[in-house]
Amino acid sequence: MVFNSLPFLVFVLAFFLVWARIKKYNQLKWIWIILMSFIFYAWWDWRFLFILIFTGLVDYVSGKKILNQPSKKFFWLWLSLGSNILSLVFFKYSGWITQLLDDMFKTNFHNQLPEFSLVVPVGISFYTFNSMSYTIDLYRGKTKPAENLLHFFAFISFFPHLVAGPIIRAKDILGQLTQNHVVNNLQLLNGVKLCVWGFFQKMVLADNLAIYVNDKFSIVSMQTDAMVWWICMLAFSFQIYFDFNGYSTIARGLAKLCGIHLKLNFNNPFLAHSFQNFWQRWHISLSSFFRDYVYKSIGGNKISPFRTEINKWLTMLISGLWHGANLTFLFWGGIHAMFLSLERLFKTIKIPRFLSVFVVFIGVLLAWVFFRASTIHDAFYVIKTMFRFNTLSSFNSIFFSSVFVWLIVSFLVVYTPKHSFLNIIKKNTVFQIICWSLLILSCVFLRGPEQQFIYFQF
Known about the structure:
Elements: H1 6-22, H2 26-42, H3 49-68, H4 73-105, H5 124-140, H6 149-157, H7 159-162, H8 170-177, H9 185-218, H10 226-257, H11 275-281, H12 284-295, H13 305-323, H14 327-345, H15 353-372, H16 376-386, H17 395-399, H18 402-415, H19 418-426, H20 429-445
Helix pairs in contact: 1-2, 2-6, 3-4, 3-5, 3-6, 4-5, 6-8, 9-10, 9-18, 9-20, 10-15, 10-16, 12-13, 13-14, 14-15, 15-16
């Protein structure tokens, strides 16, 4: 059940019809969140619901033991981490690992795996990270425990963020789930606006850009023109941004309608003036998770400059593998680690801000090649072709195509100064109504072919 589908619209209406009557009662609203979230998740494959329940139970019990048995809290922490990591490895990486072993040693491990282990449960990386953060923060004394099992499962299964984030921390939402937030008309309106803006980014911008991107990557070796690949990767850069930011914005809007605040997950990442700044703006909930629970846990920048670089590389490589069981993601993480190291090496060199924004954007765009390509071979072919500059024969076909139009719209959305534009809108109610009406009409009449959200696969 994806956000941009008719079943989800019916699901949301049913959820809020009951929510309006029970939101004052903690136990009832927690049960309702859990029930509806389980239905939402089981829509893909009901069997994988048991993984969510199992890891959640282990983390809840481990959390209680960490508090009640301080002398054994290290054991309970690692029981929690182990169960989550093992489930990730089994379902997300076992097929890839066995295939690598088969290729290296001419074995037959891959064919001996059970069929269900070769299907990645949707959103497994997100809800395991949500759940792990709970036990880690309890171990560190940075959060309060859930009141009971219902309270805990309402936190990890809350459907707006369940399958594609943003990753949330227990300390940010457990307290909100115990409060009776009176959602006034202005908050309702803001929640609806967030949903509309999210749907516009996903259905109109991302899905229309995806047509060109998918077409080119379906026959990589047939594309020999440098301009085709520069345009394709430019389109993919905007596609993945609008796809994921669209999802995160819809999730924040749905949560706001419940009186729950989810933190911003993207903050104008294509205006980043450094690669470090990019990771402070892109998928903020994930980058902060790796910073707090991986980078700092292995020493961060507290040991030595050399060890700092090692820790940075390890963190980025792990982040790359988190995105998928493929060498392409490992390369993608390594490329960003290299950019961060080079940036630190040449940090004394000052260049104009507009130029640094451009350099970062081009670096991120080139790294996306490895993120989007199916194989390392395809990724290197694309990179090689991009710098061949052999012909501009595709200029006319691109200039007069729909992708050019959507790229122009994307540039305007990303680079129009938002504060000045919003100030103009706020001062004119009629203009507000026209703008939001146009966005809604665009979602109805200009939407692209329905595409699954990119981050569902992670």
